Every structure is written in C-alpha cells, then in structure tokens.
Amino acid sequence: MSTQPLILVADDEPRITKLVSIALSEEGFRVVTANGGEDALVKAEEVRPDVVLLDIVMPDLDGIEVMRQLRERRPVPVILLTAKGSTADKAKGLDLGADDYVAKPFHPDELAARVRAVIRRTSGATPGQGIVAFDDVEIDLERRMVTRGGELVQLSRTEWLLLQHLAANAGKVVLHTELLTKVWGPEYRDDLQYLRVWVSRVRRKLGAKPGEPGRIKTFQGIGYLLDVDAGGADTSELHGSRESGMAAEASASDAGAVSAMG
C-alpha cells in the first residue's frame, strides 16, 4: 500500500518551481512547492516530504540555512539547486550536508534520476500494513476494521477506502488529487468538494465533534493528514467547519455500513 514519494520544491522563481513540479509529476512523484526559504520550512513541517529540493539563492532564507533548520527538526534528504555549476561550488554544497547537488539549467530527466537515487540511498520503511492507533481508536489495516473505545466502527466502503489511505500514510500529508484518484477514480481528481464531504463523515466516525477536524488535519490547497501524535494540535486546520457543514450532502448511494471490505 505504498505511495509515490512526496517532494518539496523551494525556489523563489515561479518558472523554476513550475518546471520542476511538472517534470517530477510526470515521473510519478507527488510535488508540493514553496516560494522561498521561510515558506519551505512551513511546508516541510506540514507535509513531511520524503525529499526537499532547495534553491541555494533565495531572498529570505538561503537554501543552506533552510537545510540546516530542516536537519535540526528531522532527518530529510536535501538536493540543492543552484545556477552555480563549478566543481568547487558542488563540493561546498555536499560538504555542508546536502545529499546531492544539481546545477541550473538542468534536464528534467536528470533531476528525476537524481531524486530517485537519493530516495534509494536514504529510504527507510515504507508505510506498512499493521495497526494505527491514537486516542481510543485502532485502525487495523490488515484486518480492514476500525474500533473506537473497543467497539467496532461501522464504515461504508468509501469511508474505509479513504481512511485506509490516510492511515497507511499516517503523519504525512496525502494530496487531494491522490485521495480522489485512489478512492473514486481519475475522473474525480479535481472534485474537492466531494472529498471534503467524505472527509467530514470519516472525522465524525473517528469521534471528532461537529465543526472540529479531530485527527484528520486539512492543509489548504494541498491535502489531508492523519495526525496520530499524542495531543496533535489543530493549528493547521483551515477547512474543518465548512467541511463538517457539508457532511449531510454526502451521497446516500454508498451508505450501506460495513466495518471492512473483503
């Protein structure tokens, strides 16, 4: 139940972030972009990327400083992007802790190959099938069932598929388009309102109060994250009230409650 790696790309030039985003998306990666160093630090904390691509020269915080602060928080592979292509500059970037270094202009195929190589060198365990637990909730990915306070939670097939995908990637943001494509199919990849309705339903099943996000956090314009850390804060929640208000609009066509699939 693994998903494609999530790449955070930070550059103050929109044309660069657009080019990199398109190139990596075409290679099957999930991509989130940041428009500078400060934005990169915020996004990295929110989405927990598998790899960070950082431009060295940015007006607020340069890539070296962003890399230093990222490494203070958690180990994350970093590839530096810069217009400087000399051997000395490359050696300096690697000496400062970068996992790789790509000089601009670069070929999209080369960049994708570098990203894959870094992931191979630094990858740990992929999301596994086991039990994801928080508060009084247990999500058993192998047995495909959910309990809350020791009682079986009745889930429709769609609710289970949505929760299953979030739980398999607990602690990481799953992109809107990925959830819509995986759960409903590629023809739904842009139907964000539909997704919000079903997320609201799952939140209620997990014990969230009306108008509150509970453990499923919203990241505006990006996706959702199942927060399993003790005492997870709600500071990132931006859509909870609106989504819960739309819960009643969910289609009744999938309302047949089941605790699991298969």
What can you tell me about this protein's structure?
The radius of gyration is 20 Å and the shape is elongated. The longest helix has 15 residues, at 108-122. It has a 5-stranded parallel sheet, with helices on both faces. Strands 6-7-8-9 form a 4-stranded antiparallel sheet, with helices on one face. The protein has 9 helices and 12 strands. The chain has helices at residues 14-26, 37-47, 63-73, 87-95, 108-122, 157-168, 176-183, 192-205, 240-245, and strands at 6-10, 30-34, 51-55, 78-82, 100-103, 131-134, 137-140, 145-148, 151-152, 173-175, 216-219, 223-226. Helices cover 38% and strands 19% of the residues. With 262 residues, the protein is α/β, with parallel strands linked by helices. Strand 11 (216-219) and strand 12 (223-226) form a beta hairpin. The protein folds into 2 domains: 6-122, Rossmann fold (3-Layer(aba) Sandwich), CATH 3.40.50; 131-254, Arc Repressor Mutant, subunit A (Orthogonal Bundle), CATH 1.10.10. Helix 1 packs across helix 5 (108-122), helix 2 packs parallel to helix 3 (63-73) and helix 6 (157-168) packs across helix 8.
